[in-house]
Amino acid sequence: MKIAIVCYPTFGGSGVVATELGIALAKRGHEIHFVTYKQPVRLDYLTHNIHYHEVIVPEYPLFHYQPYELALSSKLVTVVKKFEIDVLHVHYAIPHAYAGYMAQKMLAEENIHLPMMTTLHGTDITLVGSHNFYKPAVNFSINKSDVVTSVSASLKADTLAIFDIEKEVHVIPNFIDMNNLQKDFENCKRHLMANEDEKIIVHVSNLRPVKRIDHVIEIFNKIQKEIKVKLLIIGDGPERENASKLAHELGIRDQIIFLGKSNEIERILCFSNLFLLPSEKESFGLAALEAMAHGLPVVASNAGGLPEVITDGESGYLCDIGDVDAMAERGIRILKDEEKLAKMKLNAEKQAWKFDIKEVVPMYENLYRKMSK
Ligand code: GMT
To answer: Which of 206, 286, 289 has most ligand 1 atoms within 8 Å of its beta carbon, as the pocket-test mutant?
Structure first.
């Protein structure tokens, strides 16, 4: 099939899922057209069956806000006509589903039918989309999508509770390509990050308030009182400065390394021991799944879809949102006991296999086929 994918081309989970899905579909013989404002970060140039179309929004002084939706829907119309696209798949409702609907309408004027799937990722529902500024438009464009999917059952429940949805919402979890993980231990540079006798804890996110980086630091502070340990924080965002300040105040700044945005997460996960994700909201927690795939148990909050990804007491521990003491205690429990750590490492990997790409991509393919009939 010829599939157009619209997503955010950044390090965020929705963009990563969209890109990995496009790559997987291309490998399975589909022709994939990414339509977005920048080359997606995980997309290599020169990939067979993959095309990238840049949405350009020229700066015009009259506009206080440049009209991205307008440029995106126009680009979609051009791409769909030129490449005879069968299906449009938009990731993240805002503003992609809205722009997709406009493209559909414009194409219908020329008797071209373009079915649209909208995949909800989390913040488009629970944080941004539920705001009254956007809600009517988000509600409208979800209902106008031919197929709606959500990355967890929890997000589906939130969507149905927050919006007035007439469409069936299909749950298709996020996924990982377990057979193509980079486990390049030759290149494992553990010694650059920690001493032999230190354990390594990792947190990966966009460091937005919802991720509770302050709790990451507080949990780490309690763990480091009991165990020799380092904390690696990967990603960048608005809470970075506050986190660094808090670490200074607690006198643990030199035990924490802020690595910024990275395309080498796998090379870091390969030598790490524990992953922390104490988010206030998390529709799925792709970063946790990636960590588990590399054998890291996860200590997380029981927010949103995290209980669908992590099994409490097996592949990690789930604690109440904000319960820093409990999360620290679970972290210590895992890291202090080598036998437990080894067992949980295996469980984490085993659990990640349930989300292997081979299980999940066919779910999307089935829906594409049904839509394009
Ligand atoms: O976590 C973020 O703030 C980024 C956001 C995104 O849209 O890129 O992530 C959301 O989508 C990911 C992929 O489906 C999920 O794994 C994340 O849990 C979800 N984030 C939230 O719900 C806060």
So the answer is: 286
CB of 122 shorter than 6 A to ligand 1:
yes
Total domain count for the chain?
2
What residues contact residue 96 under an 8 Å CB cut-off, 6+ apart?
6, 7, 72, 90, 118
pLDDT tens-digit profile of 98-141?
999 999 999 999 999 999 999 999 988 888 888 999 999 999 99
State the complex-level ipTM: 0.96
- Give the span between the Cα atoms of 335 and 357, in whole angstroms: 30
79 and 193, same domain (yes or no): no
Q: Which domain holds residue 228?
A: 179-353
Please check whether residues 76 and 99 belong to one and the same domain: yes
CA–CA dist 254, 165 (Å, integer): 49
The b/e string for 254-293 (b: 16+ C-beta within 10 A; e otherwise) is: ebbebbeeeeebbbbbbbbbbbbbbbbbbbbbbbbbbbbb
pLDDT in tens, 234-269: 999 999 999 999 999 999 999 999 999 988 888 889
**Sign of the torsion angle spanned by Cα atoms 21, 25, 26, 31:** negative
Instruction: Kindly state whether residues 51 and 119 are assigned to the same domain.
Output: yes
Let me know the angle formed at the C-alpha of 152 by 350 and 351, rounded to the nearest 5 degrees.
5
Pocket lining: 282 vs ligand 1, CB cutoff 6 Å: yes
Indicate if 27 and 110 belong to the same structural domain: yes
The answer, yes or no, to whether any atom of ligand 1 lies below 6 A from the CB of 96, is: no
In sequence order, what are the residues at sequence separation of 6 or more whose Cβ sits closer than 8 angstroms to the Cβ of residue 5?
18, 21, 22, 32, 33, 34, 35, 89, 90, 91
Centre of ligand 1 from the C-alpha of residue 110, in Å: 36
Asked whether 123 lines ligand 1 (CB < 6 A), one says yes
Measured in Å, residue 285 CA sits from the centre of ligand 1 at 7
Strand partners, 231: 201, 256
Query: 197 and 159 share a domain?
Result: no
The CATH code of the domain that includes 188 is 3.40.50.2000
User: Distance of CA 249 to CAs 108, 224, 257, Å?
Assistant: 60, 15, 16
Residue 152 Cβ contacting ligand 1 at under 6 Å: no
Angle at 137 between CA 133 and CA 143, to 5 degrees: 145
